[in-house]
Write a structure and sequence with these properties.
Strand order of the largest sheet: 2-1-3-4
Shape: globular
CATH superfamily: Response regulator
Number of helices: 7
Number of domains: 1
Largest sheet: 4 strands, parallel
Number of strands: 4
Order of helices and strands: EHEHHEHEHHH
Helix content: 40-55%
Radius of gyration: 15 Å
CATH class: Alpha Beta
């Protein structure tokens, strides 16, 4: 699948950890998150980043479109690579492949669970996972980054609902499509902070 990054193809063993980001059209929010996560993994893990697969999809996506020019500009401004991205429609098979699903909004989170009810304990909004992971990540000890990532997801699932946002809609990242560049930049900042906190928790504070 052209939209995937870091490692292509289906997950062969538990030695690889898969992350999927989800929004509506797979043109703005989830592509930005995907490419920022790839860059963060490579910064932290170097060659070991190949043990992580990252891709994105949209609940109402039309397969084969590039991310918007504004989203690509935001990705590039953070030092990540927007090139080669194409949109992908969310399917049950894609959900089943992912060890962690991070969505733009609570509605997307519900849609993922509707597509695959078994995903309940591994799907979170981006900001929800980041908030809880900040609290639990330092308590997870595992020398292997993939083992650590699985352990962090399990720990975050156990703590779901205990680390609450200031407002419920803080767990929703609004769609910037059709908005001015300043809105894209603001959205990108929210996504970048959530991705950084999530990847830090998943793989540890290595460099």
């Amino acid at each position: 699948m052209a939209g995937r990054a870091v490692v292509e193809g289906r997950r062969p063993t538990m030695s690889v950890f898969s992350i999927m980001f989800v929004c509506t059209g797979n043109l703005c929010r989830s592509p930005m998150a995907e490419r920022l996560a790839v860059a963060a993994l490579r910064r932290r893990l170097g060659p070991a980043a190949e043990r992580f697969r990252v891709w994105s999809a949209g609940t109402h996506a039309v397969t084969g479109w590039p991310m918007t020019a504004e989203a690509a500009a935001v990705v590039a401004a953070y030092g990540a690579d927007p090139e080669g991205f194409v949109s992908t429609e969310l399917t049950a098979d894609l959900v089943a492949e992912a060890d962690l699903v991070l969505t733009a909004t609570r509605a997307h989170r519900s849609q993922v669970v509707t597509v695959d009810p078994t995903a309940l304990r591994r799907v979170f909004t981006m900001t929800e996972f980041a908030r809880i992971a900040r609290e639990v990540g330092d308590g997870v000890q595992a020398p292997d980054p993939v083992e650590r990532a699985h352990a962090v997801v399990a720990a975050v699932a156990r703590q779901r609902g205990t680390v609450r946002p200031a407002r419920p809609d803080d767990d929703d990242i609004a769609d910037p499509i059709g908005q001015p560049m300043a809105v894209y930049q603001s959205t990108g900042d929210i996504i970048a902070r959530a991705v950084d906190a999530s990847i830090t928790a998943l793989v540890g504070r290595c460099s």
